[in-house]
Design goal:
Elements lengths: L16 H51 L9 H12 L2 E9 L7 E7 L26 E8 L14 E6 L2 E4 L10 E11 L20 H5 L5 E8 L1
Antiparallel strand pairs: 1-2, 1-3, 3-6, 4-5, 6-7
Length: about 230
């Protein structure tokens, strides 16, 4: 086997100190570049996951409003939802996943109106309300329903159904259920994600604050998503 060292010069072939330093430098620059790319990549993954979750909430809310038998078992679902929004010019639905029990890893989807949701006349049935917020598995989504901008403004009676301008972010719903002649009710839906904590209080927004939920409080915060939907008579 031939030695790496020359017998005549007594010198060995290999890397010089400068070459080693350069190699390490190039390696570090490459690593730093990859680390720099990792941040946007992770953010992109988080954005996709959040988008998927919001999409799931939208589908859940729409299905609940359109087909839930619990909203008004013995009456008109349309009337109950309209009067719920009419009560304070908005109504609140909650959507979240909940562990089946304290010791279970199985989860179930919970969707329903806020406990004791106020109405102008036709009461929301307790079956359609969220019973409790215990053992939530992940964020709680607060879904706020209000009159939509596409609600008709009849010629000559432009404010018959809703105000022309927003107050605290929503249109005031002017017509009582008996005076609402349209065959559909268009709603703006705003979704707010909230971190769950033991003792979650639906009357406080955000959790951990001392602010009672009202339109002014909601209008101060940017919703995670806003869209329009409608229910028909």
């Amino acid at each position: 086997m031939q030695s790496l060292c020359s017998k005549k010069s007594r010198t060995c072939s290999g890397f010089s100190l400068i070459e080693v330093v350069l190699a390490i430098g190039i390696f570090l620059v490459t690593v730093l570049a990859l680390v720099g790319l990792l941040g946007p990549t992770l953010k992109s993954v988080d954005d996709v996951e959040k988008s998927d979750e919001i999409s799931s909430v939208v589908n859940t809310v729409n299905a609940f409003l359109q087909s839930s038998p619990d909203i008004a078992p013995n009456g008109s679902k349309f009337d109950a939802i309209y009067d719920a929004v009419k009560g304070d010019n908005y109504a609140t639905i909650f959507v979240f996943r909940q562990f089946v029990s304290d010791t279970s890893v199985d989860v179930r989807l919970q969707v329903g109106f806020a406990p004791g949701e106020s109405t102008a006349g036709t009461a929301i049935d307790p079956l359609a309300e969220i019973p409790n917020f215990n053992n939530a598995a992940g964020p709680v989504y607060r879904v706020v329903l209000s009159a939509s901008s596409v609600l008709p403004t009849p010629t000559g009676e432009t404010t018959k159904y809703r105000s022309l301008e927003r107050t605290n972010g929503v249109y005031e719903l002017n017509a009582s259920l008996a005076d609402y002649d349209e065959g559909y009710f268009a709603m703006e839906v705003r979704i707010y994600a909230e971190d769950w904590r033991p003792g979650f209080d639906p009357s406080v927004f955000p959790q951990g604050s001392e602010e009672a939920v009202d339109l002014e409080t909601l209008d101060k915060r940017e919703p995670d998503f806003t869209y329009n939907t409608a229910i028909v008579r």
